[in-house]
Structures are given as C-alpha cells and as structure tokens.
Amino acid sequence: MSTITKKKGHEPLFHLTKRSSFPGWAAWIVRLLAIAVGFIVCGLVAYILIEDNKKKPQDLMEFFEKFFTSFYNGSFKLNPSASRRYNRIWEFFRDTAILQCIALAVTPAFRMRFWNIGAEGQTLMGALAAIGAAFYLGGTVPEWVLLLIMLAVALIVSSIWAVIPALFKAQWNTNETLFTLMMNYVAIYVVDFFLKIWVPTDSSLDALPHGALPVIENNYLFIILVAAALTVFTFIYLRYTKHGYEISVVGESVRTAQYSGIHVKKVIIRTMLVSGLICGLTGFLFAGKDNTITTTSIGGQGFTAIIVSWMGYFNPLMMLFSSALVTILNRGKISTDFGVKGAYEDVFVGIVLFFVIACEFFIQYKISMRKFHTATKEKEAVK
Amino acid sequence: MEKNIALSMRNVTKRFGKVVANHNVNLDVYQGEILAILGENGCGKTTLMNMIAGIYFPDEGKIFKDGQEVVIRSPKDAFNLKIGMIHQHFKLVDLFTASENIVLGVDESGRYNIKDVNSQVSQIAEKYGFHIDPHKKIYDMSVSEKQTVEIIKVLYRGADILILDEPTAVLTPQEIDRLFLVLRRMKEDGKSIIIITHKLHEVLSISDRVAILRKGEHIATVDTCDATESSLTEMMVGKKVSLDIDRSEPVNPRPRLEVTGLNCHNAEGVQVLKDISFTANSGEILGIAGIAGSGQKELLEAIAGLQPLDSGEVLFINPKKNKPVTFFHKNMHRVLELNTRDAFTDLTGNPEPFLGKNRGQIRTMINTGNILFKEDEVISLRGLSPLEIRSLGVRLSFVPEDRLGMGLVGNMDITDNMMLRSYRKGRAGFLNRKKPKELAQNIVKELEVATPGVSTPVRRLSGGNVQKILVGREIAFAPKVLMAAYPVRGLDINSSYTIYNLLNKQKKNGVAVIFVGEDLDVLLALCDRIMVINSGRITGFVDARTTTKEEVGLLMTQNHADEEMPSAENDETTEPAAFSENAEETESEPETTDTTADAPEEAEEAVSDDLSPSSQMPEDPDTAVQEDAK
C-alpha cells in the first residue's frame, strides 16, 4: 500500500502460546536446567549476603566451589565428625522414603481435589498412638506382638483423624482445607497432653526401650522397603483399580461422577480413609524410628509432602524424584551457611523450588518474542 | 456505489503449537455491510475474530483499519479503533443494571453520571429499534435482553465494526427476526457487521457477503445473492453434502417412558418443573423445544435420576418379548389399566382385542382363555440414583448438555471415558480397559473422530469430536431410551448430520429418542412429535410433520404474551404464588394434558365409552373386586 502512514501502536514485546506437544526428555532437560539455575542464583544471593568479610572468598569461582562442596557434603557424604559411624547416603534414602510415604498419603486425596493439608497431624496422631502402645505395653508382650499392636493402633487413630474432615465434607460440604489444617493443631495439643501425663516432671520423653523397628541389614533399609512397597501399591491403586478411577472422576467433576452413578460421598470418605491409613503407617515408622515423640516429631514434613505431591503431578513414581530433590535440598542446606543469617537456609530451599515450579510454565507455554525482522522492516518503512 | 473498506486483514496467520488456526487469511470488510463468516467447527472463525477484537495476537500478517495499519494488542486497543465484539457467552455483571454494565470500563473524563448514561442508552435503543429498560438488572433479563445489552455496550463505545459470534444460537425465531431488523438498521447507518453463524438460512437472509473458511484458510468470499445453501456447504466442507434429514414413519410405537405430574425445585429453591406429563414412544423421536433454561436440563436430569423430584412419577416400560401367557385377571380396573399399555392380544396377536367390548364380554373373554397377556415390566424410576436405575436393567442413555462437565471427563483419554458408565463390570477391584479400548477404537473409526489416538485426552478434541465420543458411548449400550440435550450445539453442518443420522438410526431400532434442541428447523425436520415447554411447564404438543416454526415459536413464548410475564428468566425469580397459579392452570386445561394422550389412552377411552353403564365402577378397584367376588 502506498498510502501507509505511521503504523499505529507497537507490537507487544512478547506473547504466549500454548505448546501442543513437548517431548518428555526435553521437559526433563528444562527441569534440570531450572535446578542448576536455582543453585547458581542461591549461590549469588549467599555471596552477597555474607556479612563476615574474612569468610568471604575473594574469587567468585572459589566461592562456588566451596558452596557446592559444602552442599554435597551435607546431602551425601560420610559425616567425619560423627562419633557413630552412620552412613549419610543411607540416611538420605531413609529421609526420602519417609517424605515419600507422607506424600503418598496426601496423593489420593489430592487426585480427588480434596485438599488434605492435615497429613502432619494425621501422622503425628499415628505416631502418638504407636508410642502410647509401646509406653504401656512395652516389655509385657513379645517384641513382634508389640510392633503389630503399635501398627494397628497407629492405623486406627490416623484414619479416624483423617476421616473426620471427610465426613464433614461429605455431609455438610465443609471446607476441607481449613478443617484439616485445624486438625493439625488439635493433634499437636493432644500430643502435648499425653506427654504431660507420661512425663509430668521431665520436659521430654526419653527413648523407650521397646518397640524399635526391625533391623534389616541396618537401621534404614526397613523404612526404605516399606516406602518402596507403598509407592508401588499407591501407583497401582490409583491407576489400575476401580477405586482409583472413581477418585479421578470425582476429582475432575462431581457432576460427571453423579452422572456415571458414582456415590460421591462414599468415595470422599473412603479415599480419606486410605490417606489416613498411609499416614498411620508413616506414623508407626516415626514411632519405631525415634522411639519417642515430641510435638514437633514430624517436623513439618506433612506440609513438605504437599509440594512433593504437586511437583510429582500426583504420580507416585514421579514423586520419587520430587521427594528426593526436596530431601537433598533440606539436608544440603544445613551445611551451606557461611556466616549468613540463619533464615537463609529456608530461603535457599525456597529459591530452588521456585525455579523448579516456574520451569513448568516454560514446558507448557512458548514465548514468542517480538520479531526482529518486523522491527527492521518498520524502520525501513519509516525511512 | 463505491464502498470503502472498513477493515482488512492481510496474510494473517495464527498458530497454537503445531495447530495452524488461521493461515494467510485475507479478508476485507466494507462499510455499511453485513458480512457472514461461515465454516465448520475448528476452522478458525472465532480465532480470526478474536484477533480483530484484541484477544489473540496474530503470529504473522497485518490488519488495516480505514486504510491504516494497526496493531491490536488488547480489547482496549480494539475499542479505541471502534471495533467491538459480542461474544457467544455474555460478559455481564448480573447484579448491575443495563446502563451500569454498558458504562462499565469506559474511560471518560468528567463525572460519572448515570442519568446521562441512561438517556444515551435510550437514544441508541431508539435509533436502532432495540427494546431495553436501562434500569433493569441483568439477572432479571432474558437471554435476548442480555444480548441487547451487549450490543448496546459496544455501540455506546462508538464501535463502527461489530462482530457477533453466533448471536442467534440462543434466541427464538421471533427474537431472531427482531435482531436482524436491528442489524439491518445498523447497516443502513454505515456500520460494518461481521456475524458468525452455523445456520445457513440465516446467512442467506441477513448477509450481503459470505466469507467461507475451511481448515483455517479463507476459501472464498461470495455475494450472498449468488449463493445457495448447497453451494455454501460445498465450499465449507470441501465436498457435496446432502442436507436432508431422512425422517421415517415411526414403526409400531409403544409407550416406553411415561412421565406424569413432575414437579421439582432446583438447588436455589426455584421451581423449575411444573406438572410435566408426557409419554415417549419407542421408535419415535420426541422433540423438546423451548427457550434455553426453560427446564429442559432439569427434566432430563430428573428422568436420569440426577434431580430430586417434589412429586410426580417416571415409569419405564420395559417391553417383554417373551411369549405371551394366558392370564386370568379378576380386577377389572387393573385389566383396563394394563390394556392402555397394550398388554393384551387375542390369540392371533391382534393388539386391540377389547375394542368395542363391554365389561361382561371382556371378563368372559379373559375367563375363557381367549386372551393373551404380555405384561410389560413397569419400573418406577422415581427417586432412584443413576446406578440403581442401571442395576434394574433399565437401559437409559443420556447425552447431557454439558459435555465436558458432566458427560465426559476432559482430562481422561477416550478409553477411560468409554468406561465411565460401565467400569464396574468385570473382575473385582481392578479395571478392565480391554473392552473400553475396543469400543473407543470402534467409535473413532465408525464416527470418523479426528483424534491422534484413543489415548488422547478428550479435552484436546474439538467440540464435534467430543460430541461424537459422547453420543457414540451412549448408543453403544443399546439403549431403550436415549435422551440427548442439545447434541449438536456448536457443531458444524457435517458433524450435526452425523449426529442426526445416529439418532435416526436409533429410532429405527425401536429406541425412544428424546431430543432437546434449539434449532427449530432441525426439530421440525427430525422429530415426530414436539413438546414445547416454557418456564418449566408444557405449553403444547405439536406434530412435527404439520406444524410451523411460527406455531412452535409462539408456544415457546406463550407465557410472556398470555400472562404478561416479563421473561423466562424473570419467571423463575418471581414469588411462588405465581407458580401455583400456573400449576392450577395446567391442571384446569385438559387440552394440554390431552395432547399427551397417545394411542393407548385413546384405546382406554374407547373401552370406557363402551362400558358406559358402569363407567363409574372401574375408577374404584375395590368395588370391582367386590363385584367380581359375587
């Protein structure tokens, strides 16, 4: 057109389009890259934040070397200072296994879009029940009977704790997020209450002599095997059983579930029962591992499990990776401080996870930048 | 007369991932013309319009407005260029009045003065012939009124190019006529109007030119006066398509589903069904016509066991094809009742053995064993859940209106969606995906579903293909009753005819088909009988072969005229007293219920006429028994 005057407005700098397909391997590369970038950013932040100038390495490369070595040692390496010769790699797998167990517990409910954020309390109640059994029955019955009793009471108490919010949700459509969250606090005070009964004078309960988990090879393998079995079970349960199918349908749309004849209330209660049972099993593992209990025994892993489950797309096998990543970060962060203020450790985990989650956006969407050639053409046209 | 180009697109391309929604589209819109955009589902009509309206940004190509190249980054840019779009789904604030919605988001200097807005709105309405009350709240409005607000909203902002995305899909014939009148006035005023619609006859009646898109490409723009329905379809589909619906005469229709006196309230406590009674016959398509939201959805859901009833009865008559058995029945009332269901035949199989016989003769016939009894299983579906209904062996299929929110699970693949209604079968505990997979493959093959494979999530498919999957699944269970709510909504010509053919095939197989539709032309061409409802009550039954669109249209809006009800929507918000009035009226109007009477009821009348000496007797079963005891 000869009559072209000045073009009105500018092309936007970038716009987003949804990717139709993205190969799986490429997605994994993006995720690994995101983790790497997260680490580098963390390092830079740490470098800036170091207050003590004596500790501050002059060379940035030197700093990064120290940063990563320290992180690696924290996560995996044999602990040279420890008096007991325990193997940090085994410990890493055990921690991953425990986190994976709690994450598996919340996953069926999440698949149903039932936002159960009460795994902390449910697990704690299971652990309390198991410790209670060990406290009262320890020494009076054979050790294997005691373990079975501990497991049974843990399963029962945890599932009760989980089913209560489900009943309210099914009957009166209460908000499960608030309900399960509040149940966590109730659980903490219940533990406090029993501790006051069991140890009225002391501040904490000493490790009980009875009710320790069976030792296979070492203290860790039992828990790892339980978690592995549980992962396979949950995977099959969600993918290949009618229950799992019902959970998915209810999660997608309650209307569709009703249309297909699914008893929605029943599915909600049953699924939370499954969640509660897995929490009970995990609580039993906690009790058998520590042989004692405090109000902070679970240490917030019930909440960490939520992000593990999300990052694994509610797929038990994918969650193995996310729980391992979160465990690496949580363990490694302990050794990364170079005279930076304490809260930096959590900032560190937060930054890396932020990158991991944000990278999913780039897997889903493509960003088209303003095209360079149109910009140059424009200039020519103006001339 | 030399016409000026108002808007033109040059080589516009838009991709979504690998999918090319629009490819090198060149399109001109003149001032003062109505341009229709025609194309199959997923051919990129809406995407193209969204690029003009600033919702999407083109990957390539240029847009010119009045000869000047423009960049439209947002709807706001579009408004500044005087381009306005009226979307298929209205974007209005329910609690605001018409004027408040119209002025919402307008950047104007000076003080906000609603009075000025009201008067301006009235002026615009007067100029183009709209009917609107600027003070009326949106929640009080009918669909047509809401649409009017949307159009005025665009005009208020001074738009001279209006884009309407399927504006007629939700309107009655009368409302469509009114809309077209308004559009013509706007055209005379020099506005350019772009209208997207699937209905060919509307294209022919309203537009000046037609632009046809196929698979994202602009095939041609033709003058409407040179086009015919078949020429347009051919361009649209790329091959010749037959546009006739093959309607066969119902073969041996028998009552299959009897609905009597249904009343129900929805979750908000509004009465949505009022005294609905009808019979659906086997081998027949019963159409249900009505303005959107008149209770069609609730009616079907009530039958399917998804909507709790206040009162009423839903009877499913399961035909027994077993050999007729000799039957001695002492209760004449029961005999007469069963006779209405064609339960009796004589020894030669004649279905009306009692015709013209009196009570004594009937009793003799029964006692001498000259009558065969074929008792259909009558199952009450009232208060049963969908699962209970199925476990009773009632093969009732339901294609709900909300495909992805109710009929299918969007994130699941085709195979998993196949077993939505049947997954309980088979080995305990574990799912068996083998048969559903075979079924999925069959449906994909037979109904020509465009999908990469059976493991593609349903959400990724286009509307027509989603619907084929849903209808295919519901038909695969060999239903006795098939209910379909708006099965062709949003579907293009080709897919629509696939669905019509499927329904017709079911009808020929003796299925009682209930078809809720919105396009009256289709209802008239496809159905055997049409039941018209308005505001949850039946306003009439018509024979689809002899009725006219106008007659059905009048029945659809009867309430408005007869009872000065402002609108269908409004009706639902009025106080309960209004409903009881309605209910009484329907009760006192025998002709409304009379039309539900099918062959069997006529038979009953015939029988009771012949029994006139003791016609009061059959009403009371006890007396009948006593009499027999003597």
Summarize the structure.
Chain A is mainly alpha-helical and 383 residues long. Helices cover 68% and strands 3% of the residues of chain A.
Structure, described:
The complex is a heterodimer of chains A (383) and B (630). Helix content of chain A is 68%, strand content 3%. By secondary structure, chain A is mostly helical. Chain A folds into two domains: 19-49 and 340-369, no CATH class; 90-334, Orthogonal Bundle (ABC transporter involved in vitamin B12 uptake, BtuC), CATH 1.10.3470. A two-stranded antiparallel ribbon of chain A has the order 1-2. Chain A is globular, with a radius of gyration of 26 Å. Chain A starts with 13 loop residues before the first strand and ends with a helix. The model of chain A is unreliable at 1-6 (pLDDT under 50). In chain B, helix 15 packs across helix 16 (463-476) and helix 16 runs parallel beside helix 17 (493-508). Among the domains of chain B are: 5-237, Rossmann fold, CATH 3.40.50; 325-374 and 602-629, no CATH class; 400-466, no CATH class. The chains are: A mainly alpha (383), B alpha/beta (630). Chain A binds chain B through residues 1, 3-5, 7-12, 15, 17-21, 240-245, 248-249, 252-253, 255-256, 258-263, 366, 368, and chain B through 15-19, 57, 59, 64, 67-73, 77, 81, 304, 306, 385-387, 390, 398, 400, 402, 405-412, 416, 419-421, 423-424, 429-431.
Q: How many DSSP helices of chain B?
A: 25
CATH topology of the largest domain in chain A: ABC transporter involved in vitamin B12 uptake, BtuC
Please name the CATH topology of the domain at 5-237 in chain B.
Answer: Rossmann fold
Uncertain stretches of chain B? 322-328, 560-630
Assigned CATH superfamily of the domain at 5-237 in chain B: P-loop containing nucleotide triphosphate hydrolases
Spatial order of strands in the largest sheet of chain B: 6-7-8-3-9-10
